[in-house]
Design a protein that fits this description.
Layout (H helix, E strand, L loop, with lengths): L11 E8 L3 E7 L5 E8 L6 H18 L8 E6 L3 E6 L17 H7 L2 E2 H20 L2 E2 L8 E4 L2 E4 L6 E2 L3 E2 L12 E2 H18 L19 H10 L10 H14 L2 H8 L4 E2 L2
Parallel strand pairs: 6-13
Antiparallel strand pairs: 1-2, 2-3, 3-5, 4-5, 7-10, 8-9, 11-12
Length: about 280
């Protein structure tokens, strides 16, 4: 049976571990046996040419802005073959229960499959804010923040998948529907909105499309401070945040005011633990 895996110079592709509308992610090994992740964008469909070139520009912008920031995914190499645009990164940690299989350790996976403590939750949000703030200081917005695009490498949170990144001032309506503000907004406001949705997912364990619904088993008083942050992130005009620093200030206040034990009693194994 012929080998149908894509051919990338200096790498042997081992296993496909993710797929999107115009690309895929593979685990690969280099000639020294070092494991890498390779994001491939298919160049063969002319209908996607404009989007592919936009992604190539976005990757370059993100790579230059990331500059080894601890909460941004380092892009180790970018290249092209006749069939693919590709870039190479470290792989996410393996969240699978067995080392014989691979499942990328993402925030989406943690939301679905494992409990996390109040301390971990604050750590996730602080790390997310640190990474986004670094991008914004470099006049770049991510524009596609969501749990699936947040990886853990050596248990450190990394913002990944920069294919829609662009100027913080640029007005557009790109991004994933559940995490994208309605209408056309600046990249900066789009990131604030997505952060609010991610915070909502963390304190409710619900999908972002349920926002702003609060599960019956959680009393609003127990998560009022976090809920207020999410609502303000997702507001518009005067009701929205103006900077990541403003969000961080409210996050730090919320960390000491919410009654995590009350959440634990009401949501059982799917709630915050380790308190």
């Amino acid at each position: 049976m012929p080998d149908t895996r894509p051919k990338i110079p200096n790498f042997t592709l081992v296993e496909e571990c993710g797929r999107g509308s115009i690309g895929s992610v593979w685990l690969a090994v280099d000639p020294d046996g070092i494991l890498r992740a390779i994001r491939l964008v298919n160049l063969s469909d002319p209908a996607n040419r404009e989007r592919i070139e936009a992604e190539a520009r976005a990757i370059t912008l993100y790579r230059n802005a990331a500059d080894h920031h601890p909460n941004l995914l380092d892009i180790l190499y970018v290249g092209r073959t006749a069939r693919h645009l590709y870039y190479v990164t470290e792989p996410a940690d393996n969240a699978a229960p067995s080392s014989c299989t691979y499942r990328a350790d993402t925030l989406a996976d943690r939301l679905e499959r494992r409990p996390y403590s109040a301390e971990e939750t604050r750590g996730y949000i602080e790390a997310l804010l640190n990474g986004v703030e670094h991008l914004h200081k470099n006049r770049l917005a991510h524009r596609d923040l969501k749990p699936e695009n947040i990886l853990f490498i050596r248990n450190e949170l990394k913002i990944a998948d920069p294919g829609l990144s662009g100027s913080i001032a640029k007005i557009s309506e790109s991004g994933t529907e559940e995490f994208r503000p309605p209408g056309r907004t600046s990249g900066e406001q789009a990131d604030f909105y997505a952060i609010g949705k991610i915070i909502y997912c963390l304190y409710t364990r619900r999908n972002a499309d349920r926002f702003p619904e609060i599960p019956e088993e959680i009393e609003i008083r127990s998560i009022a401070a976090w809920n207020e942050i999410a609502l303000k992130c997702c507001g518009d005009g005067a009701s929205s945040y103006r900077s990541i620093a403003d969000i961080r200030a409210d996050v730090r206040k919320a960390g000491s005011s919410c009654r995590w034990r009350e959440i634990l009693r009401r949501t059982g194994q799917y709630a915050f633990h380790g308190l």
